[in-house]
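Case study 2.
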Amino acid sequence: MTPARRVVTLPPTLSGDDAVRFARDGQRRGADVLEIRTDLHAPDALSPEALAAVLPLLVSERGEPLPAHWVAAAWRVDRDLMDASGQQGSLAAPPGKLLASHHASRQLSTDEALQLWERELPADALVKHVEPMTDPAHLVTLLETQRRLAERFGATRVTVLGMGAVALPTRALLARRNVLDYVAMGGAWVAAPGQRMLDDAVRELRGADRYTVDPPLRLGILGTSIAHSRSPRIHQQPFDRIDLPEDGPVEAVVDALLPHYAGFAVTSPFKLRLAKHTGSSLDAINTLVRRGDRWEAFNTDTFGARKVLERLGARDVFVLGDGGATSALRSVATELSRDLRVLRRADIRAPLTGAGVWTWPDRVPAPDDLRFEGARVAVIAYGAPGRRIAAEIVRRGGTPVLLGAAWFVAQARRQRQLWESST
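Prediction:
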């Protein structure tokens, strides 16, 4: 299969020369197509000719009509099968430019989806079908819809997308047979919920050189606010960064993805929930490995916890927080002859001294009355979150000890060994 063209959408905050700079940055990072939409930009806010000189231009009609000069500069023109009233919409486009799309308002069965596409289309039109995803198990239906649409229109014309908070892994799987892969450049804005990052899609494409027939089962990391994660950079491709809401249905997600993934790294806040869901004897897990028709759970965080306690070197250690990382620290403390004092938020009464470990994610605010007096506090997050936590420790009178990279590398090495044993 030819790799899907990676499409990035111009954010609504950019216009003029800033829009051209965005297009150039996207081209440099591996984008193939730039999309502009009528619901995001006024007709004269952009120079479609200047943008089309950088990347092929996809112009999409969303509510407001497409300006003629947008259409003239476009590689493809996205028009919806249905208008706002649910009637057949106009598919007018110059020869060779039509991208016929439909954005369903609910999850559809494959038969319902195919009925929408009984309308006659030009032989050179591309086809894009989009559905919201509220149930991770809808992946099975979308894969079948993609297969059937490809039978009808040809594999070189069809794109099927899921959209929503649990759609990212589905989009990653669909991308293997899609013509277009809509991805996010990064930052706070995404064109649609569920998009994966451009850098991750490019990384997968580069990793594809290692297989010659069928691509391997995927790997991924499950967590909340994990844009900083280095896991996709160091593990075997394809590897997906699956960022779910904190209250997202992670249990249903891993169940739906079992046929398609060899394993997952699990990070905050899902370590305890997935330990329970998989029936693990461990209080918290950070690794899932496919074993036939089930998941086997492990906690390689113990390798990271060992590194951190050894580096701290203290016999008595306080631990801030009582989540998955603390479970790993507990499991190795006795073996290393360390005494742990686990402090929940309500337990903090006076300034803390000695050596400690901060396990709260940086998105979780620390108690207002937390203070340190000469304390050395290990930070087990890395990257920007680790730096923010370190600054908070300094602000509260402590000395941060940056051990996030040591924790990460130690546990990741063991994860790689386990995933290589998946069946």
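The longest helix spans residues 404-419.
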